[in-house]
User: Fold these one by one.
Assistant:
Number 1:
Amino acid sequence: MKEFVLKLSCPDQRGIVSAVSGFLSEQDCNIIESAHYCDDDNKRLFMRKVFVLGDNSPSPKSLPEAFSAIGQRFDMEWELHDSDTKHKVLIMVSKFQHCLNDLLYRNSIGAIDMDITAIVSNHKDAKPLADFHKIPFYHLPVTKENKLEQEAKLMEISKNTGTELIVLARYMQILSPALCKQLDGKAINIHHSFLPSFKGANPYKQAHDRGVKVIGATAHYVTTDLDEGPIISQQTVSVSHAQKTRELTAMGRDVESVVLADAVKKHCDNRVMRNGNKTVIFQ
């Protein structure tokens, strides 16, 4: 049976849960999953409801218009998703392909519910992998001189393919502030560190030199603040003094793949909500 997901946030006050649940009941909808959370710091309520239509429910197309009155009444920011409609995702990558390969495999077995529209890279290394999965590949080499031009081509590809989310799967180019602003909330990056520690190009060497006992990775939304966007997923693994940099690197790449896949899945399952520079994630 087709499921629908309603996500919303609004200033907290009495009657919101009752109003939303009552509306769905009046539309002959059956709620099969429900969760809400109130952030005491900013007095804002976040809610996610999963429901199915009943025999006497109106058409799905008419539900948003019917719900808009409640949205206006409580000053809500809300979205209604048809769970049968896959999110259209464009993946960007440079030379390291472990995260890309993991996402492509999970997509091929249905572990992540997404429609990959294209793979974009500043190198040609990933083209054979894209060809194997029959996904359009675009080579957009980036230099200081053509950076803005290539970013414009990227957005043209995104628009033409109907892309809703861009995933930076170890794409090792810093996006311009203008593009980051344009992609706010619509792009996920994997950072090869357990933020905020060990930023930079070689975090595993820094971790080894400092003798850390855990390494990790962080997936977050892209913002104009480099590597400081709202965090979606993080994981760590224990390490010891005996492990060399190459071993930490291999372990780190495994964690990166798992963390990025987790973040993309949560986004595509409509479980993530922005809360300022944080996220609310309904499990």
Note: The chain has two domains: 3-82, 87-281.
Number 2:
Amino acid sequence: MRNFFREIDLWVRQWATPVVRLLLYACVVGFLLFAIAPLPVLRLFGASFDSTIFRGMIWQLLTYSWIHGSFGHLLFNLLALWMFGCRLEMRWGSRTFLRFSLVVTIGAVLTHLVITPFVGQSNVPIIGISGLVYGILFAYAYYYPDDIVYVQFLIPIKTKYFVAILGLLAFLASVSPMQTGIAHLTHLGGLLFGYLFVRDPRWFQWIPVPDLERRHW
């Protein structure tokens, strides 16, 4: 079994940068744990105002992002993380990309947790790495605005327009009275903190991160 996982890791290393690879693994493990014991995992690792802020379970500011409720949700997020995150990590280096991931992951959910008590949704648990994905998409569009992405693998659109549309849709959905079960405020928070990091990353250099192995790409 150990050799099996080693072979998988060697294969993943060929396609993913170090931090992206760790995030992929964390999300896969979180998804499997959630499938086995959904309620305990949700209560322990999902983020909500009641548990994360009021009860002081601050680890949920990170662990919420590793839990996904469906395979489709997991697949879309990990595909976007791999497609856009690897290029950013190659541009910045693993240390800076790790710092970015921490800032955006925590900032995205804090945006949601701070606002939702005022609209009566404070105890709705938040899961998924979508907030970080939105931050990555913003950063990618900032550096590579004219790159083409294919929406639904069919419709070509420049990344700057794609991210602008995503941001507008997230904003409209967040102010809509209709409840969709999607944490749109977390998406907006990801865009916001992605913007703040890209515009002036020096504000976040106080966050200590370990030195990571960096492959040459």
Note: Residues 71-92 form the longest helix (22 residues).
Number 3:
Amino acid sequence: MGYILTKEDIIRISPSSFRVDKYIKELEELNLLPITYDSPKLLILARMAGALMTDGNLYDCRKNNFRETSFTLGQKSDVDEVVKDIKLLGFKKFRFGKKISKCNIQGRRFTMNCYWIKVTSTSFWLLFRGLGVPAGNKTKQGYNIPECILNSSKRVKKEFLAGFLGGDGPKVTIKMEKRPKREDFNSLNINDIEFRKIKEKESDGLDFAKQIGKLLEEFGIKINKIFSVKDKIPKQDGTFSSIIHIRISSSVESAYNYINIGYSYCNQKREAVINVKKFLEIILDKRIKWVNLHKIAKEKFYKGETIKNISNDLGIDYGAVFGWLRYNKRPTIQKHYLKFDKWVKEENKNGCSNIN
């Protein structure tokens, strides 16, 4: 049983002005100190840590001796989700509300609606600071994924990533691409994961992105590229930030594994990928069946059966079997005519898909 967070850690990160004994007692009474790798609340802590490293913030005003932990969310249902986890951790000092803000980006005006939650408990702040969540403006500093996440089980890592993707993770979409004189095809798209750093912290941002990429790869998600570009929009002081990009493969397997991580505290993203996930499951099932047929075809061929007989027995096009057995072509997926837009219409009409 390894220790993740102890009272000695809380003492170490606390300024001398803190009534540290009071906060340690509060955390001990909530069974949040010490924290070990088998602590029952570790999954919640990992999920919240991921969210705080994107659209959350640990605010620390030393001048006024004031600390606050905040979450920025898109919908009221997301607020309910965070509030539930705060209560499960045992905290009661929080407030939430709705914020309407107007912004101007390259001459285009937008009205943005969002919700916020603010936890005013210092012990709550110390808890996440002790776990390795950065305090203050994340754009202006370097930091890593908390060691306790990197050293934990895959279940804990998944919860951390779900919290992170709920904030900075893109949705997976499928749109129909048109081609001249040919049928439309399903185009799978995933935007890059993006976050900003000041120019001086660009290298730190790239290191953090590599950590996120490595963690995603543990779940079968292929990372194509990690890079940075200069932001086109200047900050208020006239300087430009660096935008860090994590580019995810749009292959069917990788995209499906990415969706399976989930989006904690972001119901909008979860709902947006429901049909995409179902559709990808159908395609993956077809791919598995096609690979199995390839295996059977090779076994029959090694036993002396002719390509023609194998083609007839399995009900597969002769050219496909010939390519497998004579040219060692890889099985990808059998020709199918499923189109995402039409499939969604059927899905919505029937309530469930019966298309094979």
Note: The radius of gyration is 25 Å.
Number 4:
Amino acid sequence: MKGRILIAAAALATAAPLFVFAAQADDASPATQPGFAPDTGQINPGHAAQPWSAAAPLPQDQQPAQEDARAALMTPDNGAPSAGQPPPPSPNAQSNNGEANNGAAAAGANAGPSDVPAGPIGATVQTMPAKFSKRNDLLDHMPMMAWPLPLNEQQRQQIYQAVMADTSPPAAETAKLKPADSLTFQQRRDMRPLPESLGAIDGLRGLQYLKGKDKVLLVRPSTGIIVDEVAM
């Protein structure tokens, strides 16, 4: 009997701190638990709420030119990963003929192909951070819906000439339209199938066009969204 009493007393002594802790938790204040919003189901991050980003919104009216973005997207990419940043040249290193020896160039010459990008180890042309890649920095300033199709100059010229050969008048109010814009119901009535002569160009399947005065707008008919603009 005495042993049972001792066990019960020990159990009560162990549970007491738990009740005290629970009571203290109920009395928690914002000062002890910053960022906690009771009765909302919100997970307490352990700090006061912060905005997602302090960066200013992207000024879409200052986005890169369409052809600059096209050239960036068509940058050659062999998939080779970066081996890391090359070491800086040593100002004191001298070659046999008395000229300064650039350590970075020497390391790069032994590293493999010259088109291997320099940046974080394992990064490729497409995954390189923008601070190391002018290509990706430019594309980061353009909405993905406005990214142009990978059409070379010859293909764009072929599209422009084939559409402009159509004797139908240009559609109205196309001057201000640009990629990623959505056509109105009236403008969709002016869409036309692309000429059969353009069937061999990759990326045009399923698209239609809207003819402007001095440009061709390539449109996805299911959504009425302009996917590219071809002008000469």
Note: The helical segments are 2-26, 66-73, 103-111, 134-140, 153-164, 185-188.
